[in-house]
């Protein structure tokens, strides 16, 4: 075969492959003969790899109970025996997102008397960040916890920046809470950006698509049941505004779509990075299980930052902590999928450690006051089937 014939054959193979991929949006935005010219300023559909949603790619199912408090996170201090205990728990679905800002507030309270030795109980998102903040402020810090970070409930979070997800009830928080929330959100956002661009991408920016076959409503959460607080309007300047997309501007076979950019945490790598930094700077970790507040008497430190998350319900007999159940179906990672989406109450998040499919329901009441931590295989299969149906559709 001559070089010309080989080149022609390669071109035919490329064009054949391109036609096959186009149905999944991989060549979105390519014009065809006789198509209507795009409007001025029209942004064509981006090149997106399809999600391979199938049960044979399912590796495991995990469940997380988010610690919701109607009044917002508990961040007061109290004396227990000879200890000053600074509470830092009850962040609902916003633990990772608010961790740094919340930790700064807790450490300020802990350092009020110039303390130099601090105990942190709990090794989830809140515990690791509070310990790191105290350490950077000059304290000697030991984390006491039953589980290491990758065994905690924090490790079962989706990892999406969601600073006001189930953070409180609009009519139950105190008048000063919105301003405190904004301070926590802005501090956390600024700190998270320090981890963007690192080799293993503990934090990275991604695009997310909200897809629907019907016109989209307003906020999209809390339409029924409790009225959850939402403060996103206070921090609109932190990220690009979401954009409605016209047909042809997105590669999905749905009538309506919006796109927005937001940070995402690759939780496994982020947790390892935080742990390594803490230990490298001289921090200590000890495996300890606390059954009652009296057990804190065993600690040598006089100041304790309490970051026990949902575990605070049992430890402190705090019935104000309400579980909000969330289940993740983990599929084999797809590095080529660099975006997330929400469709028919199901969310997709593509992380370095797995492609996550989660049933979110149609409102923030989904999973509310559901304490079951056993995986529900049926729920996972239905969520995967919803995503599979979306990608099986023919382009509009």
Can you characterise this structure?
- This protein is α/β, with parallel strands linked by helices and 396 residues long.
- The chain has helices at 3-22, 95-110, 125-136, 177-192, 267-280, 312-315, 377-392, and strands at residues 58-68, 77-80, 83-87, 117-121, 140-145, 203-212, 243-245, 256-265, 284-287, 303-306, 322-331, 339-343, 346-351, 354-359.
- β4 (117-121), α3 (125-136) and β5 form a beta-alpha-beta unit.
- α2 crosses α3 (125-136), α2 (95-110) crosses α4 and α3 runs parallel beside α5.
- The model is unreliable at 1-36 (pLDDT under 50).
What low-confidence regions span 5 or more consecutive residues with pLDDT below 50? 1-36
Beginning-to-end CA distance, first to last residue:
41 Å
Largest sheet: 8 strands, mixed
Class by SSE composition: alpha/beta
Beta-sheet strand percentage? 15-25%
What would the principal axes of the Cα set say about the shape? globular
Q: How is this structure best summarized?
A:
The chain is an alpha/beta fold. It is built from seven helices and 14 strands. The strands form two sheets. An eight-stranded mixed sheet has the order 1-11-14-13-12-6-8-7. A six-stranded mixed sheet has the order 2-3-10-4-5-9, with helices on one face.
Annotate the secondary structure layout:
Blueprint: H1 3-22, E1 58-68, E2 77-80, E3 83-87, H2 95-110, E4 117-121, H3 125-136, E5 140-145, H4 177-192, E6 203-212, E7 243-245, E8 256-265, H5 267-280, E9 284-287, E10 303-306, H6 312-315, E11 322-331, E12 339-343, E13 346-351, E14 354-359, H7 377-392
Parallel strand pairs: 3-10, 4-5, 4-10, 5-9, 6-12
Antiparallel strand pairs: 1-11, 2-3, 6-8, 7-8, 11-14, 12-13, 13-14
Helix pairs in contact: 2-3, 2-4, 3-5
């Amino acid at each position: 075969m001559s070089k010309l014939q080989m080149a022609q054959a390669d071109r035919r193979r490329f064009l054949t492959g391109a036609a096959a991929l186009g149905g999944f949006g991989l060549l979105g935005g390519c014009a065809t003969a006789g198509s209507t010219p795009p409007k001025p300023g029209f942004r064509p559909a981006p090149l997106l790899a399809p999600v391979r949603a199938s049960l044979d790619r399912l590796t495991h199912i995990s469940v997380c109970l988010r610690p919701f408090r109607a009044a917002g996170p508990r961040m007061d201090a109290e004396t227990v025996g000879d200890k000053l205990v600074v509470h830092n728990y009850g962040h609902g679905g916003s633990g990772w997102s608010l961790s740094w800002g919340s930790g700064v507030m807790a450490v300020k309270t802990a350092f009020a008397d110039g303390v130099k030795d601090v105990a942190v109980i709990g090794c989830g998102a809140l515990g690791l960040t509070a310990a790191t903040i105290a350490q950077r402020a000059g304290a000697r810090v030991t984390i006491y916890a039953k589980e290491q970070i990758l065994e905690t409930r924090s490790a079962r979070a989706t990892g999406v920046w969601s600073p006001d997800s189930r953070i409180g009830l609009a009519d139950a928080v105190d008048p000063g809470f919105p301003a405190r929330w904004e301070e926590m959100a802005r501090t956390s956002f600024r700190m998270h950006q320090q981890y963007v661009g690192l080799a293993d991408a503990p934090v990275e920016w991604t695009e997310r698509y909200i897809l629907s076959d019907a016109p989209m409503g307003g906020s999209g959460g809390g339409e029924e049941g409790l009225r959850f607080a939402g403060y996103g309007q206070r921090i609109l300047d932190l990220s690009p505004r979401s954009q409605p997309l016209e047909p042809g501007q997105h590669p999905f076979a749905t009538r309506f779509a919006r796109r927005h950019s937001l940070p995402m945490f690759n939780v496994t790598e982020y947790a390892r990075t935080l742990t390594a930094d803490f230990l490298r700077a001289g921090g200590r970790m000890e495996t300890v299980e606390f059954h009652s507040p009296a057990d804190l008497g065993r600690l040598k430190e006089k100041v304790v930052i309490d970051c026990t998350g949902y575990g605070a319900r049992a430890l402190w007999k705090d019935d104000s902590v309400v579980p909000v159940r969330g289940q993740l179906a983990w599929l084999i990672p797809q590095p080529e999928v660099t975006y997330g989406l929400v469709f028919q109450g199901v969310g997709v998040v593509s992380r370095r450690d797995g492609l996550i499919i989660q049933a979110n329901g149609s409102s923030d009441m989904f999973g509310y006051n559901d304490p079951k931590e056993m995986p529900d295989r049926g729920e996972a299969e239905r969520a995967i089937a919803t995503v599979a149906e979306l990608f099986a559709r023919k382009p509009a």
